[in-house]
Amino acid sequence: MSATSRLVLLALVAGAAGWAGLAAGERGITVATLADIAGMQIASWQGTEAAVPPDGGLKQAASSGPVIYYRHPDGLPDWSGAPTKTADGRDFLPVLASEDVSFDPETIVAAPEAEQTVLYYRNPMGLPDTSPVPKQDSMGMDYIPVYAGEASDGGTVRVAPGKLQRTGVRTVLAVEGAMDMVIRAPGVVTLDERRISVIALRADAFITSVEDVTTGAVIKAGDPLAMLYSPELATAVAQFITDLRGNGTPSSGSRQRLQNLGLPDSVINAIAADGRPPVNIALTAPRDGVVLERMAVEGMMSEAGQTLFRIADTSVVWVMADVPETALLGLLRGAEAKITFRGLPGEVFEAVITEIYPEVDMQTRTVRVRIDLPNSDGRLLANMYAEVELNVGNGAMVVQVPESAVIDTGDRQVVFRDLGEGRFAPQNVVLGQRGDGMVEIRRGIAAGDRIVTTATFLIDAESNLNAALAALAEPEVGQ
What we know:
The chain folds into five domains: 3-99, no CATH class; 118-153, no CATH class; 161-178 and 396-477, conserved putative lor/sdh protein from methanococcus maripaludis s2 fold, CATH 2.40.420.20; 182-192 and 314-391, Efflux pump adaptor protein, beta barrel domain (Elongation Factor Tu (Ef-tu), domain 3); 202-305, no CATH class. α4 (231-247) runs antiparallel to α5 (252-260). Helices cover 22% and strands 35% of the residues. By secondary structure, it is α+β, with helices and mostly antiparallel strands. It is rod-shaped. The relative contact order is 0.13. The strands form seven sheets. Strands 7, 9, 24, 25, 26, 27 and 28 form a seven-stranded antiparallel sheet that branches. Strands 10-19-22-21-20-23 form a six-stranded antiparallel beta barrel. It has helices spanning 3-26, 31-45, 161-167, 231-247, 252-260, 265-274, 456-477, and strands at residues 67-71, 79-80, 93-96, 118-122, 130-131, 144-147, 157-158, 170-173, 175-178, 182-191, 196-200, 205-210, 218-219, 224-229, 281-284, 289-294, 301-302, 307-312, 316-324, 336-341, 344-360, 366-374, 385-391, 397-402, 407-408, 413-420, 423-435, 438-443, 450-454.
């Protein structure tokens, strides 16, 4: 053979070896797999009978044909088009034509021990078209035979191992444990409605002066807010002083009248101690807090019931969170909550659910939940945005699987059970609570069942395709 012919042959062999390595990698064939196949082929080439490896390999016939290429004696991915040696001086082993590795489009499988029965031939492109005899499609591609052992039985789906690996099918065991349910909900800071005071008069009055109190000012209980003159109040105070001077002690009726007009006991006691009716009456703050609204203006005429000031105690505020309706099952008063605020990055406030409001919002389908937070330093302001995490699990032991394992068809929920050897069975399930990427399975599977978690829609498509092909093939095969 000339040198040019040797070079051409070497290039062809190297290309074939590269294609073989690429095809093997795409189909999940490892060096160990090639070594097992090569070991059986060497034994056949040497005229001996290769032992059946543990992965199900079969005995090979005696090798024949010309030498295609030479391979590394240790089964390493190293080939040569001409006789050569390893670094330690050992000869590369020849691979004859009958020993060359063949790659099936789906996976490498051992030859069947007995001849299989072909049920029908299906379209190579997955179209619902079958034939009882071998044929080709319009593109010249051979129809793929479907053997008796490959047909689905009892609702199971068979998928070749090579296809499983290429599509990334993954499975996990269904486990039994407490459902760790963490719900994240938006919230907003609001004032405690029990700590808001509206200051208004119970009689017509003139505002003679207003203290230096503005909206947002922090005040203490008893601080003066304004001075006012009211003819009705002046008459009641005069009667109170008259009774005090005549009897030494004011009558309960005159004192009660002043209380009914809204004068606090501290002001009434001051009038009694002075013994003279004041011209103007001081209006004082009933509680500690922040002035939310100031309507009093010096010189104005205030009618009975008109709001002059609105004061709120902000030492405790509420966080109102909107929780999805689907989380109601595990929502309980006293459940732990963690709250963060965009305006206070890096800080986490811990509290518990104080109240669950008894209605669902018609628009958002959420339930309002109230959480009380201490705010002695006043950093939490009304209408601040909050992010709330709620632990709503009740600690009950339930069977659960990842949410990705469930296929929701609209009218039912299905998971695929892994039966082994590439067989899968769809199983209707009844779902329960969801939380932290897991979903409770109330009925359908048990703890320990192996469930498909990824590529579930590919298996579902394979199931539907097999069912369609079987339905089309049965009348044709019977002809």
